[in-house]
Amino acid sequence: MNLSFLKFHRHLFLILLLVITSIVAITTHLGTLKEASELDWFDAVGEAGITLVTLVWIFFILISRPSGKVTNLLFVGLTLTHVSMLLDFIDEFYFYTSDSAWLGTIESLPAPVGMIIMSVALYWWHQEQMSINAQLRNTERYYRDHSLTDFVTGLYSAKYMKNQLQREIINAGIHQQSFVMMLIDIRKFDSFNRKYGDQQGDTLLRETAQLILMNLRDEDLACRYASDRFIILMPNTSVQTAQTVATHIEQAIANLAFKIGNSAAAQYQHVTSCVMECNGEDEYLNVLDKLNDRMLATKHDINNQASPNQLIHSKDVA
Ligand SMILES: Nc1nc2c(ncn2[C@@H]2O[C@H](COP(=O)(O)OP(=O)(O)OP(=O)(O)O)[C@@H](O)[C@H]2O)c(=O)[nH]1
């Protein structure tokens, strides 16, 4: 048990002690002890239990929370509830003459007031937790962004994609729901690199990544898989929808007027894409192998269909 917060709440413990001793002092001073035969032990034990439990709650609140508004409200609410319970418990042993009958009358008042205060405190506690969660999410995103994203494109890395793919495969197996994987490969990227240099190659990778992202939905996950290849994980998607998205991406990239340095001339690049449905039966490495095989087959088909002129996909436009 970590008691490190206790030192911040010494004043609250003192107030609690003061409240309890005042109540015990007032009631025992104004009340008259009942005969043993008048005592209802069953009631007394039950009320003692409730009284102790409210003290335990106060203790746990104080060791779990830093000082502040929410802690103070919880403390006040629980202490008022405890006061009612304590008065109720003590009046099992004491009766009050008509002069001090008010003690019996007020005993049930603090509890409802305390409960209202606790409700307010719980609302603030909820608000506080929401803002802590938001901060934790941001912190988590910060670390994730630095360890699992690709430096060149800003997309998620292959490592992150593999983790997500493994999760998606398990989900697909459990819920019997398939998902779609899309692979996108920039054509002739090697010759682009050699012609214009790695720096221009990096810029092209970055702009391609941006165009891919622009065509995806919120739930899709785009990652840089390897050199000039991108993988998109598409949950709850049909192959037809994925193919439509792939066509949009191909068109968007084909229409990107990529400028080399200060030159006004535009370079037009093309990508090859393929999509594949996964049903959660394969291991993630098998899924990736199949997807790569599909890309090879797609490239093979394109090369077979294309005339010799069309094989040169990028063209300079002045
Ligand atoms: N600029 C840059 N180039 C990279 C990076 N990572 C890999 N490459 C290069 O990407 C090229 C990939 O070449 P290939 O795999 O042959 O791809 P390709 O030329 O597009 O071949 P096809 O897909 O068959 O058209 C290689 O020249 C790599 O050096 C990177 O981060 N930045």
TrEMBL record:
GO terms for biological process: cell adhesion involved in single-species biofilm formation; negative regulation of bacterial-type flagellum-dependent cell motility. Coiled coil: none annotated. The keyword Chaperone does not apply. SUPFAM superfamilies: Nucleotide cyclase. Residues 177-311 form the GGDEF domain. Its EC number is 2.7.7.65. The chain crosses the membrane at residues 12-32, 44-63, 70-90, 102-125. InterPro entries: Diguanylate_Cyclase, GGDEF_dom, Nucleotide_cyclase, Rev_trsase/Diguanyl_cyclase. It catalyses: 2 GTP = 3',3'-c-di-GMP + 2 diphosphate. GO terms for molecular function: diguanylate cyclase activity. It is an enzyme of class 2 (transferase). It comes from the Bacteria. GO terms for cellular component: plasma membrane. The keyword Acyltransferase does not apply. PANTHER family: DIGUANYLATE CYCLASE DGCM-RELATED (PTHR45138:SF9), REGULATORY COMPONENTS OF SENSORY TRANSDUCTION SYSTEM (PTHR45138). This is diguanylate cyclase. The lineage of its organism: Bacteria, Pseudomonadati, Pseudomonadota, Gammaproteobacteria, Alteromonadales.
